[in-house]
Amino acid sequence: GSPAVSGGRVFTTSWDGTFVALSARTGTLLWDHKLPYNTISSPTVIGPNVYVADRGAGRHGNLYAYRVGDGGRVWHFPDGRFSTVVVGAGRLFVSGASREYALQPQG
């Protein structure tokens, strides 16, 4: 997916499930996670959290929210295969395996 940039940080994923936050100024690794499954999702920053999805097992993926500052996981939603979160009207819009979701932002 495409990187997201917010607050002097760059958030990006790679196919193998690696999800990282880098300093936009220096490129220094700030934190990283290995998602349970592969991903092509683009991270989306909303307030204190960054959202990213993986392919999951079977038909459904997983959507996660991590704290921008320290990378701590704050939330998980069991659908959203590869979905990049879109924001509007105070909601997170996510495409699932067989339906669309309008979710409340976390944090």
Report what the structure shows.
With 107 residues, this protein is an all-beta fold. The chain is 0% helix and 49% strand. The strands form three sheets. A four-stranded antiparallel beta sheet has the order 1-2-3-4, with no helix packed on it.
In short:
This protein is mainly beta and about 110 residues long. It is about 0% helix and about 50% strand. The strands form 3 sheets. A 4-stranded antiparallel sheet has the order 1-2-3-4, with no helix packed on it.
Please describe the structure with a list of short key phrases separated by commas or semicolons.
mainly beta, 4-stranded antiparallel beta sheet, 11 strands, 107 residues
Q: How do the strands and helices of this protein lay out in sequence?
A:
Layout (H helix, E strand, L loop, with lengths): L3 E3 L2 E5 L4 E6 L5 E6 L9 E3 L2 E6 L7 E6 L5 E5 L8 E3 L2 E5 L4 E4 L4
Antiparallel strand pairs: 1-2, 2-3, 3-4, 5-6, 6-7, 7-8, 9-10, 10-11
Shape summary? globular
Put simply, the count of helices is 0
* Strands, total number: 11
What does the radius of gyration come to?
A: 13 Å
> Largest beta sheet: what is the strand line-up?
1-2-3-4
Q: Largest sheet, if any?
A: 4 strands, antiparallel
Which structural class is indicated by helix and strand composition? Answer: mainly beta
Percentage of residues in DSSP E strands:
over 45%
Helix percent band:
under 10%
Helix/strand order, N-terminal first: EEEEEEEEEEE
Mean pLDDT: 92
C-alpha termini separation? 24 Å
Instruction: Outline the low-pLDDT stretches.
Output: none
